[in-house]
Specification:
Largest sheet: 5 strands, parallel
Helix content: 55-70%
Radius of gyration: 17 Å
CATH class of the largest domain: Alpha Beta
Number of helices: 10
CATH architecture of the largest domain: 3-Layer(aba) Sandwich
CATH superfamily of the largest domain: Cobalamin-binding domain
Number of domains: 2
CATH topology of the largest domain: Rossmann fold
Mean pLDDT: 90
Order of helices and strands: HHHHHEHEHEHEHEH
Structural class: alpha/beta
């Protein structure tokens, strides 16, 4: 027996955390394929959240509730997802640069990447340059994501890229940056490979870039 997965999308967008957990559990228990729950229910919902956020139709507290709901639902379905279901798309290290304590956009992007089949290593907020370098060395990701929400912390992104060069590992990872004050022009200026205007577009931009490098 399967269920209408559009209902899961609607509940996620509404930010009903407990109801989303209940519906996700019911879907799993009813025999609905976990990959279908992800691809037809949760991800479309998060796509809508990302677009609403981009359009200004949803505010940060609402986005945070949706992200919390997505995280809880993923905990339920993750044990039922195979590597093939998840797509095994690649590995992402993501963090917010030193001096910046904002994490909502970063966390939302991380969830989007996880849902798209990436293994996500979220190193957190206020991370020094060395932390990004060490994470790339340890995890050997295909992508490094950096977030900044303050104009005063944006320069840290360029510093991290320079630190990657000094460590001799810059060419081993694609760098994507984002955050409210960040622009495509700034990404080009500091030598980042990619720029995402919002969390919702980050996965698509990254996946297309990685495919073009194969």
């Amino acid at each position: 027996m399967s269920m209408d997965l559009s209902k899961i999308s609607e509940i996620l967008v509404a930010g009903k955390v407990d109801e989303l957990k209940k519906q996700t559990e019911e879907a799993v228990n009813s025999g609905t394929n976990a990959a279908d729950i992800l691809n037809q229910g949760l991800l479309p919902g998060m796509d809508t959240v990302g677009q609403n956020w981009k359009d200004g139709d949803m505010f940060m507290p609402e986005v945070l509730r949706c992200a919390k709901g997505m995280s809880g639902a993923m905990e339920i379905i993750r044990p039922h997802l195979s590597e093939a279901d998840m797509g095994n798309a690649g590995k992402l290290v993501i963090g917010t640069v030193a001096g910046d304590l904002h994490d909502i956009g970063k966390d939302l992007a991380g969830m989007m990447f996880e849902g798209a089949g990436y293994k996500v290593i979220n190193i957190g907020i206020d991370q020094p340059n060395e932390a990004f370098v060490e994470a790339v060395k340890e995890h050997k990701p295909s992508v490094l994501g950096m977030s900044a929400l303050l104009t005063t912390t944006m320069p840290r992104m360029g510093e991290v890229i320079n630190s990657l060069k000094e460590a001799g590992i810059r060419d081993e990872v694609a760098v994507i940056i984002g955050g409210a004050p960040v622009t495509k022009e700034y990404a080009e200026e500091i030598g980042a490979d990619l720029y995402a205007p919002n969390a919702g577009s980050a996965v698509d931009i990254t996946s297309k870039y990685l495919d073009s490098q194969k």
